[in-house]
Design brief:
The protein is about 35% helix and about 25% strand. It is an alpha/beta fold. It folds into two domains: about 140 residues, Rossmann fold (3-Layer(aba) Sandwich); about 280 residues, L-fucose Isomerase, Chain A, domain 3, CATH 3.20.14. The strands form four sheets. The protein has a six-stranded antiparallel beta barrel. The protein has a five-stranded parallel β-sheet with strand order 2-1-3-4-5, sandwiched between helices. Strands 7-6-9-10 form a four-stranded parallel β-sheet. Strand 9, helix 10 and strand 10 form a beta-alpha-beta unit.
Length: about 425
Amino acid sequence: MITDSSASRPRVGFLPIWNQPKLPLQDDYERGLRLVHSLDADIVTGAPAWSQPEVLDRLEELEAQRIDLLVAYVLSGMSSTQQALIGARAIVPVALWALPTSYSFPSTANALGGLRERGRRVRMVYSDGDPAAVIPQLDVMARVAFAIHQLGRCRIGTLGDLFSNLSAAHYHPDTLMDRLGPQVVHIRLSELNRILSSIAQDDGEAQDQIIRLRACCDVRVSDAILAKAMRIHRALKHVAETQRLTAIALECHTELTPLYGINPCLGFAEEPCPYLIGCEGDVVMTVNLLMARYLTGREAVVGDIYSLADGVLTLVHCGGDRRLARGGSVAIVEQQAPETVGLATRMAVCLPELPAGPATVTRLHGPGCDRLDVAAGAVIESCTDERLVVKVRLDDPRRFLEHVCGNHYALVYGDVRPHLRILADWLGLQITEM
């Protein structure tokens, strides 16, 4: 990604809390060290610490390594003070790894209570059986901490305003940044036009891009339509690079499509597209998509609610990122401009064939950007004739109906509810499981 949010794996610091002279627990220490290295993360190991000055020194050393999560491995009891100090001083979220021996567990429970009352981003992991049972929990926490860190570094560009039909997607940029981290940057149309004027209508790079697309996708569009759309993509790519943008929220209906006669999202066809594409100027949904990317390492798809029948939710959209196909077919087809555009033009769109499988439907919303709705289900079918149509069988369609709000929903592959529960806890979001 352009903003050096390019790290794809979390970075985890490992800090053993251990009164070594009094407790010869070398086997437990080495077991924890082996297990933490089995995480799907890059591990930074600190030396064991016990005294408060040692604890603070190790914490500073580990955080200087740009970690996302700190794992305090609690080998010794009577360590509530040390754990509370870590939880209070750490910049990053903290996982307190308690053991069933040496009074580690009660000491951790004691520290955890005070830290949670103070609203600190801290959780405990514990297993009284197989020590490896905590690793999946730590993997989830590491991904959540990574997502929070990356969101705090994001810059989202807006090109055009929020589409007027999206009455449930209003937000304030300062509120968004305070709550979730991303900074919103307005891009002037005059800047886009200036860049477009420097890109020739028909140059060698455009032809190379078209050749690459035809080699890897089922392209059913003329070179002329493709070239027009790719020219906009190249201009947007330049904007993203020069302004260090992670994503761009594009308002197509009343801004870009009428002006340029294209769907501005053909960047979906580049693998990978160097900027995440937000739909219809919906910045909050753009953040939702970024959350999904950082939590799972995969792209999500945004969809408009179309119908709910027999427990199956149908989402539709003009297109999606080609990486969503996961090895399946990707078509680039002609699509009639929406009626809202008021322009009779054919446009190129990218339609990936979505695989079946477990999925989570999510929506971040609210004037305080502090509400997160989550529904579990499974993708059972997708269609890519002229637009992207996805059918999701919901686990609890009645509850979805009780809480549905808004037009845009993000479809994330896998059951990411455990991730989203922790994310909501650490970011102060009100989560509703539908």
